[in-house]
Design a protein that fits this description.
The complex is a heterodimer. By secondary structure, chain A is of the alpha+beta class. Chain A has 5 helices and 6 strands. Chain A has a 5-stranded mixed β-sheet with strand order 3-2-6-4-5, with helices on both faces. Classes of the chains: A alpha+beta, B alpha+beta.
Chain lengths: ~170, ~270
């Protein structure tokens, strides 16, 4: 064909196995999944990306937070086929090699981690927040993290880490 | 089966064929939880996330038309202040980036913040099926918890709001975010002179305080009419005792937040 036509989106239907194509942590993936599985199940069980945690499975705790096209969402509430063509970033996608992302670095430096279960979700919510507000106020940080629950260390050090990360980003 | 139709016509065709067995899926913030918790069984999902034509906010006439798949995050920026405030109070950021306006209405929760806000604006829901379309006033849309007037083959495609001069929304919950409303209230002063006062979590469906509205339409907004309307709101609500709050508490709080909102849209200083 001489000219490129605008590709009409094809309807999809099917059952297990369902072929899912999406980008995960910068890498194009094409995998066979059960279409009734959530993104959380696919990340953890099909892709072995167990950094994304599952706790409440009802969108209350934020431990499964991932970025979809840069925006934080609960992976437990997304059915995996809905991620067709989308770009998902999990906690595994932040560091490059041994070099931590500035937000991760700040969490370590400020001691904002205790058991660590909520940490991946908090870090990703913080990433999205800093992308949205280059210089967030403490109130904006609180609001940006309101969908993430920590049940052990509390929030003071987390807030400090996110404020520090935002500050450092500004200095770069 | 999982279906991802590429067109609206195809989605409607699937729903018409599958009936109750086919469930429209958008943000999934309610439905996917239902499945995970064993409250809901879904034979066939009809995923609407490819239908970009359902994602828009557009002025229409004097008012506003909101596409069904607009997320709460999109509504947070709405010039309709009460609607923006309600959307901002739904869940946390992750939920607001996912949950949609049509989902909030279709779920028909008595506590749905956005539904309550839209009810105060006397919004209208546009339903579509292969048989054709119809518009239903939101005040006739909710039947009981989880039940609406929608036929098994219908889809919510849009919500329309008339022009409003002022509006507001307040919610009382157990905490500031990711909380189900103990009581919520939306008020609107519509451009045609009517007032809308809607409340959530005080009846089996979002409720309009019709007597309070009529009182304001007759007497306008002033300290005395606002006090009387707030008392009427407390009389009109039909709350129950549950694990979140007592009926008495809800009744009292309903009047208080209605008064605060009306005072605010009247531009009067709040006495409390």
């Amino acid at each position: 064909m001489a000219t490129t036509e605008t590709k009409q989106p094809q309807s999809q239907q099917g059952d297990h196995p369902w072929r899912l194509q999406f980008t995960c942590n910068g890498e194009a993936r094409e995998i066979d999944i059960d279409p009734h599985h959530t993104l959380l199940e696919v990340l953890r069980e099909d892709l072995g990306l167990t950094g994304t945690k599952g706790a409440c499975h009802e969108g209350e705790c934020g431990s499964c937070t991932v970025l979809v096209d840069g925006v934080p969402m609960n992976a437990c509430l997304i059915l995996a086929p809905q991620m067709e063509g989308r770009e998902v970033v999990t906690i595994e996608g932040l560091a490059s090699g041994d070099v931590l992302d500035p937000v991760q670095e700040a969490f370590v430096k400020e001691g904002a981690v205790q058991c660590g279960f909520c940490t991946p979700g908090l870090v990703l919510s913080a990433k999205a927040l800093i992308a949205k507000h280059a210089r967030p106020s403490l109130q904006e940080v609180r609001e940006g993290l309101e969908g993430n629950i920590c049940r052990c260390t509390g929030y003071m050090k987390v807030l400090g880490a996110v404020m520090a990360a935002a500050q450092n980003r500004e200095n770069v | 089966m999982f279906y991802r139709p590429a067109t609206l016509a195809e989605a409607l065709e699937l729903k018409s064929r599958l009936g109750q067995d086919g469930v429209f899926l958008s943000g999934g913030t309610d439905l996917v939880v239902g499945v995970a918790k064993g409250r809901l069984e879904v034979g066939h999902w009809i995923d609407l996330s490819r239908l970009a034509e359902l994602v828009y906010v557009a002025p229409e006439g004097d008012g506003l038309c909101i596409g069904a798949s607009c997320t709460h995050a999109m509504l947070e920026a709405s010039p309709y202040r009460g609607l923006a405030q309600a959307a901002r109070l739904v869940g946390g950021p992750q939920i607001r980036n996912r949950g949609t306006v049509a989902g909030n209405l279709g779920t028909a929760s008595p506590a749905g913040d956005v539904g309550v806000s839209l009810l105060a604006f006397d919004a209208e829901v546009e339903l579509l099926s292969l048989r054709g379309g119809r518009r239903v006033p939101l005040r006739e849309f909710f039947l009981s918890p989880g039940k609406t007037v929608m036929a098994p083959d219908e889809l919510i495609v849009a919500v329309r709001l008339p022009r409003a001069e002022a509006s507001g929304f307040l919610k009382v919950g157990k905490r500031l975010s990711v909380a189900i409303s103990v009581v919520c209230c939306g008020v609107a002063k519509l451009a045609d002179g009517r007032f809308g006062i809607a409340l959530g979590s005080v009846a089996p469906t979002p409720l309009r305080a019709a007597r309070a509205e009529a009182h304001l339409a007759e007497h306008g907004l002033n300290p005395a009419s606002i006090a009387a309307a707030a008392d009427l709101v407390s009389e009109e609500v039909r709350p129950i005792d549950d694990h979140r709050a007592s009926a008495d508490y809800r009744r009292a709080v309903s009047g208080v937040i209605a008064r605060r909102l009306l005072t605010e849209i009247a531009g009067l200083p709040d006495s409390l």
